[in-house]
Amino acid sequence: MHRVVVVGGGFGGLQAVLKLRRAPVAVTLVDRRNFHLFQPLTYQVATGALSPGEIAYPLRAIFKRQQNVHVLMAEVSGFDLAARELHLRPVAGVPAPPSIAYDTLIVAGGSKYSYFGHDNWREHAAEVKSLESALVVRSRLLSAFEAAEVETDPEQRAAWLTFVVVGAGPTGVEMAGQIAELARDTVHREFRSIDTRTSRILLVEAADHVLTTFPPSLSARAARSLERIGVTVLTQRTVTGIDAEGVTIDAGGKTERIVSHNVIWAAGVTASSLASRLGELTGAELDRAGRVTVEPDLTLPGHPEVFALGDMIRLHDAALPGVAPVAMQQGRYAATVVRNRLRSRETPPFRYRDKGNLATIGRAAAVAEVKGLRLHGFLAWITWLVVHLYYLVGFQNRLVVIIRWTFSFLTHGRSARLITVDPAPPAS
Ligand SMILES: Cc1cc2nc3c(=O)[nH]c(=O)nc-3n(C[C@H](O)[C@H](O)[C@H](O)COP(=O)(O)OP(=O)(O)OC[C@H]3O[C@@H](n4cnc5c(N)ncnc54)[C@H](O)[C@@H]3O)c2cc1C
C-alpha cells in the first residue's frame, strides 16, 4: 500500500487526510497535539466566551471511522528526503518511533507569531494562536480586573485597567472588541472598588488603517464600530518596546509610552520551522516570513513526492493570505494529486478560489467581503456566525457553541471566565 504521511492536523492537514478517505493508501497523520484546533475562535477562549473543548476536537475522534488513517502524536524534528523518512521526537512524555517512512509526504505545519526579532517581548505580550497561550491570556485579562480591584494606587489601578492589543488585523480587531465587551458589558457589575467600564482598550497598528486586507470602506467602518464600543484605535504607531510596565511606541518620530500591565500580541506571523528545514534541504527559497516557496502543484523543487501547504508556504506567483480557506483548499488539492497519480492522471496547478474575507468586532457588528459583496453590521455578523459554525469540527461543538453564543447574546454573559493558569502577571 502506498504510504502517505501527513504532518499537521490543522486546517490543511485535516483536509488532505479527509480527502484521502477512499484512496488506496495508508495514511499516518503526525501532530504534536492530540487535537485539531479551530484557531479562528481561540480569541473567544482568551476572553472567556468559549471553553477550550468547544473549539478543539481530538484527532482520533475525527478519524475513528476512516480505517486507512493512523494518528501518531509526536513532534517532527527533521526530514531525510533521500531516505524518504521523517524524524520524530516524543511530546508530553508519550514515546514515539525515532523515524517513519513515507512514499508521499504532505507537510502542513502552520505558522507561529513572530515578535519581529524581539523574543523578550513574548513574556509580557502573550498571543492567542495556541490553546495554551489563549488560556494564559484569559488568566491575565481576568487577573488584571482582580488586581485592579485590590489596588489602592490610582496609577497602578489605571495600569491594570489599560489593555493594549498590538496589530489590527482580524485577530487584533476581534481581541480588542471582545476585551471592550468583557470590561463594559460582562463584568462591570461584579466588582465593588472599580468601575471596569473605565478600562482603556488600545489597538495599536503600524499601518494607517485597521484590517489592511479589507477594502478601505469596510476598514473605516470597522474602525468606527471599534470606537463605538470603547476601543481607541491608534494607527501609524510602531511598537518599539514592551516590558512589564507597558509599551513604547514610535508615532512618526515621536516616542509615546503607554503604561499597561496587559499587552496582547496580534502582529506578524512567521512560518513553522519545518518550512526552513525543507528550504535548506531542497534549495527552495524562503520569504521574509520564513515561508518556503513551492512549485505550482505545491511540491518542493526536485521532490515531487513532498508537498508543503498552508501557512508555511508561498506559491511562486501568487501572494495568498495566511487564512484557513487557503490551507484547506491546498490540503484537498495535495490529496487530489496523490489520488490522480495513483491512477496515472495529471492534475492542473493549484488555483485558489477566494470566497471572501470576514472579521467580527463585537455584538452584532462585523465586516465581510463575500464574492465582491461588501457587508457590515448585523448582516455581516450573521454571515460570520454561520461560516464559523459551518467550519467548526464536530456536531457537538457546533451545537454547544450556538447555544453559548445565543446565551451570551441574550445575557451579555461569558461562562468561561476562569483563571486556570498562573498568569505570572508583571510585578507592579
Ligand atoms: C488567532 C488566530 C485567528 C485566526 N482567524 C482566522 C479567521 O478568522 N479566518 C481564517 O480563515 N483564518 C484565520 N486564522 C488563520 C488560520 O488559522 C490559518 O491560516 C490556518 O490555521 C493555517 O492552516 P495550516 O494547516 O497551515 O496550519 P495550522 O492550522 O496551524 O496547523 C498546523 C498543525 O501542525 C502541527 N505542527 C506544527 N509543527 C509540528 C511539528 N514539528 N510536529 C508535529 N506537528 C506539528 C500543529 O500542532 C498544528 O496542528 C487565524 C489564525 C490565528 C492564529
Describe the structure in your own words:
With 428 residues, the chain is of the alpha/beta class. Helices cover 33% and strands 27% of the residues. It is built from 12 helices and 26 strands. The strands form 8 sheets. Strands 5-2-1-9-22-21 form a 6-stranded mixed sheet, sandwiched between helices. The chain has a 5-stranded parallel sheet with strand order 11-18-12-13-14. Helix 1 runs parallel beside helix 10 and helix 5 (131-150) runs antiparallel to helix 6. The radius of gyration is 22 Å and the shape is globular. It starts with a strand and ends in a 17-residue tail after the last helix. Residues 7-13, 30-33, 39-40, 42-43, 75-76, 108-110, 128-129, 170-171, 272, 274, 310-311, 322-325, 327 line the site of flavin-adenine dinucleotide.
Helix residue percentage: 25-40%
Number of helices: 12
Q: What is the number of beta strands?
A: 26
How many strands, which pairing sense, and closed or not: the largest β-sheet?
6 strands, mixed
Bound molecules: flavin-adenine dinucleotide
| Outline | globular
Which runs of at least 5 residues are low in confidence (pLDDT < 50)?
Answer: none
Mean pLDDT across the residues is: 95
Structural class: alpha/beta
| CA-atom Rg in angstroms | 22 Å
Content of β-strand? 25-35%
The N- to C-terminal Cα distance equals 61 Å
Strand order of the largest sheet: 5-2-1-9-22-21
